[in-house]
Amino acid sequence: MIFFLCYKKACGFAMTKGRKKRHVFLTNSRVIDAFRHYLHDRQKQEGILFNYDAALFLSQKGDAFSPNTLQQLFHCMFREARLQGASSHFGRRSFATALIEKGIDIKAVSTVMGHSSIAMTAKYVQNNPVRLKQICTDLF
Q1: How far is CA 12 from the centre of its chain?
Q2: Rounded distance, CA 40 to CA 49, Å?
Q3: Are the beta carbons of 101 and 128 closer than 8 angstroms?
Q4: How far apart are CA 43 and CA 107, in angstroms?
Q5: Do the Cβ atoms of 23 and 74 come closer than 8 Å?
Q6: Could you tell me where the beta strands, DSSP code E, fall in the chain?
Q7: Three-class DSSP category at 59
Q8: d(Cα 127, Cα 32) in Å, to the nearest integer?
Q9: N or C: which terminal CB in the chain sees fewer CB atoms within 10 Å?
Q10: What is the pTM of this model?
């Protein structure tokens, strides 16, 4: 995934391996500050404001990370955190589920996730038996 960041704004977009453009909204001030510092450091290293044709994050060799490398990195982080069965899409599924559980409508979640249909978003959302029981209880 290639990530592009609006330097002055807290947003960006990512190009997936399928060349689909996804908007990314940064809402955490610590994350925004970390990106700004990182981009400032890259500017000093490369001598240009930012090369929007280059990958945002570079490997130790100075190249873009391959999808396989990122998948292995996530696998190592999940293993260290002792998250059994987590995959590279674990965060996306958890994010979609959390939004739905907070009452965000599925069309908005679908848009934020970058899906072309709510059917795909529905596949990402995990059923929570406790939540389902509460929904049934609230009906009566």
Answers
A1: 11
A2: 8
A3: yes
A4: 38
A5: no
A6: 2-6, 11-15, 21-25
A7: coil
A8: 32
A9: C
A10: 0.64
